[in-house]
Design goal:
Layout lengths: L2 H8 L5 H6 L3 H5 L2 H17 L3 H5 L4 H13 L7 H22 L7 H32 L4 H14 L1 H11 L3 H32 L6 H11 L3 H9 L3 H16 L1 H19 L1 H6 L9 H14 L5 H24 L3 H7 L2 H25 L1
Helix pairs in contact: 1-7, 4-6, 4-7, 4-18, 6-18, 7-10, 7-17, 7-18, 8-9, 8-12, 8-14, 8-20, 9-10, 9-11, 9-20, 10-11, 10-15, 11-13, 11-19, 11-20, 12-14, 12-20, 13-14, 15-17
Length: 371
């Protein structure tokens, strides 16, 4: 791989998009093989994502994309990595940020009104408690590195794979760490699809939550990992439950931007406390402002004003899905299974502990807030 490709692969800062615009034509052409490969993976993943069985099991196009990427990344991709590496890195980094920004078109401030302040408070309590619990359990009890614990915490606390991918630039994590974190979301989020309908039936007898689709929908939306998994679990109960659950989940997604900003500030303070001398000279310890998070909020506000035609919004959402699928596919291409195996069972143990907290602790928080 040439020096340009290596430099691009290392570039994780938000100025990458502007840098790309300034590239000479020759260097832009070097991105094409990797971009085409990532786009092909995204297209196949989106087509497979429409398969009924996969939808019923909460397997979105993003999840399929990373699985396909891992399959190719550990078989055929190494033979073309030298030519495709630059475009794959661009998909994994710059296109990811564009996808996170456009994700705001799925949300409006009006969504908050549907679940009320009780739903917002429940989401906030679960997001903060789940992430803090992940860091404490992951680093102190299981001995995981801080980046892995935080990525797993973000995915479980907020919105699954999208939150993991959005947190990666702030932490500057490795591809293997990101993939392991997403794996916990896939495993336990899929389990939730089958568990929550049973919990709904038990709640009819035990009444730990107020009866009815509204309360249980808030519970499901505030505790299940992915949007697709939330919909699949809620739809297994009733249309009303699914609608409330998805709206609650989208309010939870809105918390991604303030979470990223707060995390970046906390990392700076933590680094200064651990090594004050190094923090003054080490550029990696400076505040990493996730500018794409501000753009994400701006898009939500724009979408809330309803200035854009619905057809335009729908098409933009489709583009967003494609961009995120490209980023997921690119992530899979650069993920080595040997590194995942070296991670061992500890990430899954942490995912299991967080899943128990979301189910049990989430029910307690929902009960206290609703009560």
């Amino acid at each position: 791989m040439n020096q340009f490709a290596l430099d691009l692969k290392k570039d994780l800062n938000p100025r990458a998009a502007a840098w790309f615009d300034a590239l000479p034509l020759r260097e832009r052409l070097q991105l094409l093989p990797g971009l085409v490969l990532s786009a092909l993976l995204a297209g196949v993943a989106i087509c497979l994502g429409t398969v009924g069985w996969l939808q019923a099991h909460g397997m979105s196009a993003l999840t399929v994309a990373i699985v396909l990427g891992i399959a190719l990344g550990n078989t055929l991709y190494p033979h073309v990595a030298a030519r495709s590496g630059a475009g794959v890195a661009f998909s994994k980094q710059t296109l990811l940020r564009a996808g996170v920004i456009l994700y705001g078109l799925r949300l409006t401030l009006h969504d908050i009104g549907h679940v009320g302040m009780a739903g917002v408070l429940t989401d906030a309590l679960l997001v903060s408690s789940t992430f803090v619990l992940a860091v404490i359990l992951g680093t102190r009890l299981l001995g995981l590195d801080r980046a892995s614990a935080m990525l797993i915490g973000a995915g479980n606390a907020i919105c699954g794979a999208a939150a993991v991918m959005a947190t990666e630039p702030v932490l500057r994590a490795k591809a293997e760490q990101v993939t392991v974190a997403i794996s916990t979301v896939v495993v336990f989020g899929t389990l939730a699809i089958f568990l929550y309908p049973a919990l709904y039936a038990l709640n009819l007898h035990w009444h730990w939550l107020p009866p009815g689709s509204q309360a249980f929908g808030i519970y499901a939306g505030s505790t299940i990992h992915e949007v697709a998994q939330v919909f699949a679990a809620g739809r297994s109960i009733s249309v009303e439950t699914a609608n409330t659950a998805v709206i609650t989940k989208m309010v939870r997604v809105m918390m991604l931007a303030p979470f990223l900003i707060a995390l970046s500030g906390w990392l700076v303070r933590a680094s200064a406390t651990e090594d004050p001398a190094a923090s003054k000279t080490d550029a990696t310890r400076k505040l990493t402002i996730p500018w794409f998070a501000f753009a994400f909020v701006a898009v939500i506000l724009l979408n809330s004003l309803a200035l854009l035609p619905q057809t335009v919004v729908a098409e933009a959402v489709d583009v967003d899905t494609f961009l995120l699928a490209m980023a997921m596919g690119a992530l899979g291409l650069t993920t080595h299974l040997s590194a995942i195996r070296r991670a061992g069972a500890k990430p899954l143990v942490l995912g299991a502990l967080l899943f128990v907290w979301l189910v049990v602790g989430g029910a307690l928080i929902n009960h206290l807030v609703a009560g």
